[in-house]
Specification:
It is a single chain. It contains twelve helices and 14 strands. By secondary structure, it is of the alpha/beta class. The chain has two domains: about 250 residues, 3-Layer(aba) Sandwich (Rossmann fold), CATH 3.40.50; about 100 residues, Rna Polymerase Sigma Factor, Chain: A, CATH 1.10.1740. The strands form four sheets. Strands 1-4-8-5-11-12-13-14 form an eight-stranded mixed sheet, with helices on both faces. Strands 2-3 form a two-stranded antiparallel ribbon. It has a two-stranded parallel sheet with strand order 6-7. Strand 13, helix 10 and strand 14 form a beta-alpha-beta unit. Helix 3 runs antiparallel to helix 5 and helix 3 runs antiparallel to helix 8. It is globular, with a radius of gyration of 21 Å. The chain starts with a strand and ends with a helix.
Length: about 375
């Protein structure tokens, strides 16, 4: 599989939904496979909160492959022998695209807390700027889960002529109080961590020591991303063999799991990026500026494919069923499919239980 990682620089201003302007910006993106002559084999992948442009395959020195390697690659459901797959790192993210630690051209200093609030629409608009620069006018499909699913829905509404198929997985049409509450734990933990220094921490310090506030917030996320049944199956009541049962800070295995995964996270993910992305997700509403959500989904021209997961504890199946019901109400039942996967991995099922829906994706892409 051919993998290429590139940086696209844009000097034209990007007008944001907030009224702010990014005078210039950069997007890091990765491509897989070959673009055919008429550029008709493009599949766009949109990543979730902690994801990146590195969606599949391995770099030479990499222990783990890209985050959706189970779905994308030679001979896989999204077959890179047939399709030209492209995934860009979202604006505001920590993996190379313009974010809060980038240099503000007007001040020659890092943006930090002066970075503008971004919406899902802003992120998608920046991506469209990238595709236009590559001469890509249409896509075979846009595919995303969680925050990536929000982007997929945004494509279907705001750029209705762009993609033939839209796959939105484990997502929602607007962020509910439950998900906002989960994000609030991270936001408050980061803000009140002394090491955060009101956003003026030294990057090298965090790389060396991490940020406990971000780790605690990540723990809340990990709990929401999985499911009670998965925790029961994976950990049960097992206690750490290295810790005494009657030690105050002795740990169950589930506690060790949370510590290991959460405290390693700040070494790779910037806390300001986390704050800005949480805000972006919190304010997402596909029906914003409209009296009814139906007004937004009435714009959809693509074939919309909704995939939910039965034990998703972040964006519950009924949230995606609401979108399905709206499409039916609009008389678009033939334009839409809905599938609920009987899952066992919670919200993360769209990443780890790919074998339960990959044939479904193949059938749709091949018009079976």
């Amino acid at each position: 599989m051919k993998i290429e990682t590139k940086v696209a620089k844009f000097d034209e201003p990007l007008y944001l939904e907030s009224g702010r302007i990014l005078e210039s910006f950069e997007l890091v993106y990765e491509t897989y496979g070959e673009l055919n002559e008429d550029k008709s084999n493009v599949i766009v992948i949109c990543h979730a909160l902690a994801g990146s442009h590195h969606v599949a395959g391995r770099y030479a020195d990499e222990a783990k492959p890209g985050w959706w390697d189970k779905l994308i690659g030679d001979g896989k459901a999204i077959d890179t022998r047939k399709y030209f797959v492209i995934c860009s790192n979202n604006l505001g993210s920590t993996f190379g695209s313009t974010n809060a630690l980038s240099i503000d051209p007007s001040t020659k200093k890092e943006y930090r807390l002066k970075f503008p609030i971004l919406t899902i629409s802003d992120i998608v608009k920046a991506q469209m700027r990238l595709y236009n620069s590559l001469g890509i006018k249409n896509a075979k499909a846009v595919v995303g889960g969680s925050m990536g699913g929000m982007q997929a829905l945004c494509y279907s509404i705001e750029f209705p002529d762009f993609a033939e198929h839209i796959f939105a997985m484990a997502t929602t049409a607007y962020t509910r109080p439950w998900a906002i509450a989960i994000n609030k734990i991270a936001i408050e933990s980061i803000r009140h961590d002394p090491a955060f220094k009101d956003g003026f921490y030294k990057k090298d310090d965090l790389a060396a020591r991490g940020l406990p506030g971000l780790a605690i917030g990540r723990m809340a996320g990990l709990i929401a991303y999985l499911s009670p049944n998965l925790f029961n199956q994976k950990f049960g009541r097992e206690y750490s063999r290295t810790d005494g049962l009657y030690e105050l800070f002795g740990r169950f295995e589930v506690e060790r799991y949370l510590e290991y995964n959460a405290y390693s996270f700040p070494k790779i993910f910037d806390p300001l990026s986390y704050l800005y992305i949480c805000k972006t997700m919190n304010i997402f509403d596909a029906g914003r500026n409209k009296d009814k959500l139906e007004d937004s989904f009435d714009k959809v021209k693509s074939k919309l494919h909704l995939i939910s997961f039965s034990d998703d504890m972040l964006f519950f199946p009924e949230e995606m069923e609401e979108i399905r019901d709206i499409m039916i109400k609009l008389g678009r039942e033939e334009q839409m499919t809905y599938k609920m996967i009987e899952s066992q991995s919670g919200h993360d099922s769209f990443l780890v239980e790919v074998e339960k829906f990959d044939d479904y994706v193949v059938d749709i892409l091949e018009n079976k």
